Amino acid sequence: MKIIFNADDFGYSKGVNHGIIEAFQNGMVRSATMMAVMPGFEHAALLSKQNPELRIGVHLTLTAGRSAGGVYKTITDSEGLFLPQNELIKRAAHCDIDMQEVEVEYEAQIQKILEAGVKPDHFDSHHHTHNLQCVVNVFLRLAKKYSACVRIYNKALLTGDYADIKTTSAFDDKFYGETTTEEYIKELTGRYNGDSLEVMCHPAYLDHTLLETSSYNLKRIFELKTLTSPDVKAYLLDQGHELCSFSDL
Known about the structure:
Elements: E1 2-10, H1 14-25, E2 31-34, H2 41-50, E3 55-60, H3 85-93, H4 99-115, E4 122-125, H5 135-145, E5 149-150, E6 170-172, H6 182-186, E7 196-201, H7 208-213, H8 219-227, H9 230-238, E8 242-243
Parallel strand pairs: 1-2, 1-7, 1-8, 2-3, 3-4, 4-5, 6-7
């Protein structure tokens, strides 16, 4: 099985960035998704250029940071800051989001990453908000436009015009919190069928930005410890699995 350990939140902060690079250089991570609108973006872009074998995607966000496109009527406040996650979900449920605003903002984030000299190979999103009703259609149009692989909940959408968009056979989002252990990773492949698996992960070193702005902070250090375990890596390789990126699908 091809296993993609994808590190979310590249660009969130310097501590997150350094943790992801550590998990790449000395661990199992071969893929990361970059946030264009967070304080560590420029630092992440620099680290990406210094580590070209780490493949980069776009971690599109509508729930964290300041928008790349300015102030919007339905997805930011009056200062251009994105709305809280629960407010965005409520508005999406009532179709109170302007999808043109979403598309403009998504494009702005993608272009910011391209202009930094990074060519992304896949798209996903912070808090999985690209899976929200209507938003997912914008997301898929852009994935097709940029020939990007995707992380998506409803794979039935990958038909018709979107049939050529690639994703993994399976997706694991349970390597999180109390399950960030070596045992969980060793037992992982037995839970899924198919030829490819994406494992969402959040390795990081703890810094002030992460501590003050994310509820998921300390456990990221334990993720980093597991993802850089020589025993776990050797186990997966001995089982015949391939550690790879979306570009290898």
